[in-house]
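Section 3.1: Structural characterization of target chains.
Under the original work plan, the team committed to producing a structural model for every single-chain target entering the pipeline before any wet-lab resources were allocated. The record below documents one such target. The sequence was received from the expression subgroup and is listed exactly as submitted; it comprises 474 residues.
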Amino acid sequence: MNSLLFIILVVFYFYMIVSAISVLLLENRNPVRSLSWVLVLVLLPVIGILLYFLIGQNYRKQKIISKKSIKHETKLPYKELKPDAFTEFITSPNQLNMINLLYKNSDASVYAYNKIDVLADGESTFSAMFEAIKNAENHIHIEFFIFEDDRISNYLRELLIEKAKAGVRVRMIYDYLGSFDLSRKYLRTLKEAGVYVRPFLPLRLRLRRSKINFRNHRKILIVDGKYGFTGGLNFADRYIFGNTLGKWRDTFVRFEGAAVHGLQSLFLTDWYFVERKLITDIKYYPKPKKYEQNLIQIVSSGPDSDWECIMQGIASGIMAAHDYVYLHTPYFVPNDVILNAVIIAALSGVNIKLMIPKESDSKFSDACTFSYLGEILEAGVKVYQYEEGFLHSKAIVIDDFISIVGSANLDERSFNQNFEANAFIYEKKTALELKKLFENDMQNCREITLDDWHNRKRSQKLKESFARLFSPII
């Protein structure tokens, strides 16, 4: 009897593996990702099949959140403008091509005449956000990957409670896993004060339909429809007080003007997903003032979008560069598109500088990152390790005109598995400010040379190469 049960279990297990591999093949995914999952399924008995059902399924065509369908079902109370409405703002045809790409692949409208402030550290970012929240009169919409239950987040909690009790409508979205450590008291006190709090993709005990691997990594704050913030920082003490990695260095941007409508539309789309309530009241889209001459696109992407929108935009920007590309990222685990864009641009004579942290909060990502450095160093890319704490910034500046700031890292998780939001900014002033910040950060860096990379210990090289095998699926 036991032998028969064992045979049945073995047959069933192999049936599950064959079924999973068949689904992988029929989905026509990236071959590297598919082969990585085949390795996991074959080499990790039982664990491999569990991992596949938990984090390996492809939902890109299932439309977990469909921004386009929501927009098409409702009449938004403001007019969205197409790229050709602002051709006089653009300095080259390549830039217009990039704007058209983002308009088509992510439905990213173009917003003109904005006020833009770059916030380069935790102190300035939290100060600006808290000031905006204190002055809120109508509504506060806040959506972050991580709200730590610490001093910074508890001060935020107190402000949100105060504003909610004063009659301001407060809506808050937190990622269920990213903010897993939030206490029941933290959430209860917000709800009791009248704050509308919703988790994004809470855990469900449904293995075959698990979405545990798809997290909302966006960082967005909108106040009264007039002030908008986005970038890479989370609500946590480490951006001011540091932790074992030191103080975390990040980049945020503050907007006034029409671009706030883009952030608002994205937040309310996410709110529809978590609450199933469609909100289009005109009070959330007040008529914007006109500020300086610039253009902004708010680009969102996720595991259910038609295209890898942010990744395509970054690749397009790198390939459009004539003079330089400066890249801030805590994790450099590029796919073939980004890797080849960087290599081709560098070989073409574009001055490309990549800044990564000396040590990140993920040993696995650090190992993966180093496995890629040899290729780009040989192509002429300059690589710098930031040593004054942990570089968590996700900021790119190109040719004194294009700036990209947001939540997406240069890795497969951000390109394929997370819901992300990035601002693509077309303006010389902002680009020069980000360029200066990058050059200031270089003073706290050590340059990695090709000799440094070749002279690593053999054991380190093996560890990095092994980690790279699984980078497409982690």
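The chain has three domains: 2-56, 67-89+112-202+210-292, 309-470.
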